[in-house]
Write a structure and sequence with these properties.
The protein is α+β, with helices and mostly antiparallel strands and 279 residues long. The chain folds into three domains: 97 residues, 3-Layer(aba) Sandwich (Rossmann fold); 96 residues, D-amino Acid Aminotransferase, Chain A, domain 1 (2-Layer Sandwich); 60 residues, Dna Ligase, domain 1 (2-Layer Sandwich), CATH 3.30.1490. Helix content is 34%, strand content 28%. It is built from ten helices and 13 strands. The strands form three sheets. A five-stranded antiparallel beta sheet has the order 11-10-9-12-13. Strands 2-1-3-4 form a four-stranded parallel beta sheet, sandwiched between helices. The protein has a four-stranded antiparallel beta sheet with strand order 5-8-6-7. The two termini are 12 Å apart.
Length: 279
């Protein structure tokens, strides 16, 4: 059967998880790449039209043009994982906050501003510091940081003044992020020092399935249901009030996650089998 990976990073075919999974899949299937990094959405769609519709598309890109291609392909009744709608919801932090609130999941209070300039024009005395500031849309090189004062916030203006942003309530934690990765129903997990700590180690300390509290598992599976995700990553931190979700990533790289390549291959085979049965 035919598999197409939509990507925007030239390193993806050599990735220690994604690349290995693609090699394993190519032993039984035709695997091709749709690299959109130098294309507009229209150009990428035209490029894809030169090929027969694949049996399965893997959307390993958050670039706007990749999302345009995915949306077009779904209109042609192609199967895209994760779907266009699911991927968009994981990039739009305002939409994500709305979904989390509707599902009663532990997500920080989030307020949107059409630009940093607009935020700075408001009364800064009404803000509670520290706070977390992020770009409205998650993208490579976006704005994410902990702000401790009005002066720190104002110092962002030269670079980020026109950036649409959200601010979130800061949740004090125990200094660790809980990293959870999901491939279909399989959950992988690790601890990592929070990046908000200067000089924090990026080393992951793996957690076994037996070490995962039921609450973490429930939250992680609920996110997959709410956002309709088959491949995703979740970042949690432990606050004094319990776990708080701080990020959801549609189709992460699963780098350093033991067994992720085999789990990814198994999911793709299952999806292809389902597609073949339905045809």
């Amino acid at each position: 059967m035919n598999i197409c990976l939509i990507m925007d990073n030239p390193e993806t075919p050599h990735h220690p998880v994604i690349g290995v999974a693609l090699q394993k899949l190519s032993q039984a299937h035709t695997v091709r790449l749709l690299d959109v990094r130098s294309s507009t959405g229209e150009q990428a769609i035209a490029q894809e039209k030169a090929f027969p519709l694949a049996d399965l598309y893997l959307l390993k890109s958050h670039a706007p043009q990749a999302l345009e291609v995915a949306h077009y392909l779904e209109q042609q009744r192609a199967t895209v994982v994760n779907s266009w709608a699911s991927s968009v919801a994981c990039q739009d932090r305002v939409l994500m906050a709305e979904r989390m609130k509707e599902a009663n999941l532990p997500w920080p209070q989030t307020t949107f501003f059409p630009s940093l300039e607009h935020l700075l024009s408001q009364s800064l005395s009404t803000l509670t510091f520290p706070l977390i500031i992020k770009s409205h849309y998650s993208h490579r090189g976006d704005l994410v940081g902990k702000i401790d004062s009005a002066e720190e916030l104002q110092a962002l203006a030269p670079r980020w003044n026109n950036e649409p942003v959200v601010i979130q309530a800061f949740a004090a934690s125990d200094g660790w992020d809980i990293k959870l990765w999901v491939i279909d129903q399989q959950i992988f997990a690790a601890r990592r020092r929070t990046p908000l700590t200067p000089g924090a180690s990026k080393e992951d300390i793996p957690l076994s399935a037996q070490e995962l509290p039921e609450e973490w598992v429930h939250i992680t599976r609920a996110i997959g249901h709410v956002f309709d995700l088959r491949l995703y990553g979740v970042d949690l931190l432990m606050s004094e009030h319990g776990p708080v979700i701080v990020d959801v990533n549609s189709f992460p790289g699963f780098r350093g996650v033991p067994g992720a390549d085999n789990a990814l291959v198994a999911l793709v085979e299952d999806l292809l089998s389902s597609a073949e049965s339905a045809s």
